[in-house]
Amino acid sequence: MKKRIAIVGATGAVGEEILNVLNELDFPVESILPLASAKSAGLDVEFRGKIYKVKELTENVFKENPVDIAFFSAGGSISEKYAKFAVEAGAVVIDNTSHFRMDSNVPLVVPECNPEDIKEWKKTGIIANPNCSTIQMVQVLKPLDDEFGLKRVDVSTYQAASGAGKEGMEELVAAMQSFFAFKLDEFKPQTFPYTLALNLIPQIDVFTENGYTKEELKMVNETQKILHKKLEVSATCVRVPVLRSHSEAITMHFEKDVDVKKAREILSKAPSVKVIDDPQNKQYPMPLFTSDTNETYVGRIRSDINHKNILHLWCVADQIRVGAATNAVRIAQKWLELN
Ligand code: A2P
Q1: Residue ranges of the Semialdehyde dehydrogenase NAD-binding domain (predicted)?
Q2: Running along the chain, 339 residues long, what does each successive block of 10 average in pLDDT?
Q3: Which end of the chain, N or C, is less surrounded by CB atoms within 10 Å?
């Protein structure tokens, strides 16, 4: 049966991409309710040849315009305040923000890893979509964990500007333009703590007392929740001057020794994962080639020089799609199957 869909944050980077992915994955859509702030009310949104007017998100909008599924992608404080109104009006909420992720009553789902957790949605009416860096990483960890028993993960991320939404991407472009106008020194960043053009910023979100940032701790806590395992995870998250694909250098420590050939074979069969790993011919994943795709790409798969139970790899995925919109739509597909 076709479903009525609300998109909260329909004018944002992720909201717009959810529409593209719903269409690409052939999701059975009856109608779209695009929601945003008052400033966007009245704008047109097109979906499958039909025009829908953006409405202002209010407490009553879901009562007045009932929907079956509400995707929330307008920031944690908006989800905190408004998700309950969507649930009260009968919708399942698929939330892209960090607000509900660690709530023990809310399932946190990557359909390739823990689809069965979706069944818990009835407790609150909400299903949480993990952090973008977590999603692409667990898609790779899960099949290797099943085979070799994962004990610890060390990851360094190279995160694109898109993680900060449209404003983040626009700020990177503006900073590049300032560079070519010989005015980079005068550039005043507002979204990122420093100018991102020609720079790397080893801070995403705020620092906590233990020296890790909130973004890094999200990768730790969310990975454990999704894999249902008290795994050791340590992350260093870095913002890089790339527009929209996140990259990650991942080191995995296993209980068993790992045969690299076997690991490569497992990953090439893993759902939503594509292996590009032919270093002699300069073949490895790069953000330049992964935008607008729904797969997580891995390469540089290699055994540790010193320990046979340690494996290293390089992993790249489109942050707006795999890290947000595609995962959210895949959750909706699984939810449909189960209901
Ligand atoms: P708007 O465009 O009207 O500000 P991004 O992550 O790309 O920056 O997008 C954020 C999304 O969240 C946009 O669609 C934005 O709408 C929406 N949004 C921001 N603040 C609110 C709010 N107070 N009420 C509803 N939507 C909001």
Answers
A1: 4-121
A2: 97 97 98 98 97 98 98 98 98 98 98 98 98 98 98 98 96 98 96 98 98 98 97 98 98 97 98 98 98 97 98 98 98 95
A3: N
Are residues 287 and 244 in contact, defined by beta-carbon separation less than 8 angstroms? yes
The CATH number for 13's domain is: 3.40.50.720
Residue 79 CA to its chain's centroid (Å): 16
Beta strands in 172-217 (DSSP E): none
Q: One of 99, 113, 237, 246 is an active-site residue; which one?
A: 246
Respond yes or no: is residue 99 known to be catalytic: no
The answer on 220 and 108 residing in a single domain is no
Residue nearest (by alpha carbon) to ligand 1 atom 19: 74
CATH number for the domain harbouring residue 254: 3.30.360.10
Q: What's the 11 CA to ligand 1 centre distance in angstroms?
A: 7
246 catalytic residue (yes or no)? yes
* Domain that includes residue 233, residue range: 133-319
